[in-house]
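Input:
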Amino acid sequence: MKKRIFSGIKPTGDLHLGNYLGAIKNWIALQDEYDCVYSIVDLHAMTTEYKSNELRENVFKIACNYLACGLDPQKSILMVQSSVKYHTELCWILNCLTPLSWLERVPTFKEKSQTQDENINMGLLDYAVLMTADIILYKAEAVPVGEDQLPHIELAREILRRFNSRFGDTFPEIKGIVGKGARVKGLDGTDKMGKSLDNCLYLYEDYDMLWSKISKAVTDTARIKKTDPGNPNVCNIYSLHLLFSSTKDLELIITGCKNAEIGCIQCKKLLATNISEELEPIRTKYYEFLNRPDFVNEILFEGNKKANLFAADVMDEVYKKIGIDHGFFKK
Ligand code: TYM
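Output:
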């Protein structure tokens, strides 16, 4: 029996290289080894300001992105979080087991409470509990995510242990899986690449768009002129090369930069070319899927159905264990 994986992305806008390298690329690679459930977590998207008339469209676009990146519906379940009502039911049950102090300590909650101070809602505080419900509802054992999500996974481990120790062994232990792109920095060279910051490269961008942004990106700030030797280890362009370029290109850059044989422009052009080459087939497929809404919606429909069936069994077990017996009311 294969172990199960769960992971998801919020439909809050276009996907960037952080989402791709931190999450999706890993998801695709793990499809043969695990039984995977990949979700579009629309309920989590409601914790920050959003427009109700854009949410459905964003869900659809993310589904097209997953498929374009190589999510194979024959191997993995592609589903929308809100279509399986048990996520919120289980979240409530877990709420009643989770001390408030655990949630107030979560780094993303602390950060959002500062940056989003006009809308510090209960959903934001409860974010990690809903995430725990997402994962354990499918008895997942592994969660491929970027590094920023590890504190949430740690909390999920605590919550599920609480459930198991109070009601008996039900949920397996979970672990986070982080890959090579665990924390992709933005083009500013300091912050994490993120939708809320103007520092992203997006999956839909073609060479010209990529180049116009990469050409202005921060490099090794100590290298002023082309004749100055540079230090790839402190240069964000090099860290992106590590994720997109061949060994041959990497050798060329390390030697060329350290010996001032190549300048930042040449190095950046090579990066834009390599990123564009990897993204080109994804971009093409993305637009193809956008033009096949019936096909994509059918995949979501089937995925939601499979997810519901699996989750229903787990919830039967959960309700019995916590002392709620719905069978009692049947005639
Ligand atoms: P979201 O949409 O904020 O992020 C989706 C995924 O992208 C990764 N990521 C990054 N990885 C590396 N470098 C970056 N700059 C970068 N930016 C984003 C995130 O780590 C994440 O893996 N809370 C989740 C969504 C979620 C979820 C779940 C995930 C809801 N329930 C259950 C796993 C399991 C999130 O961060 O979404």
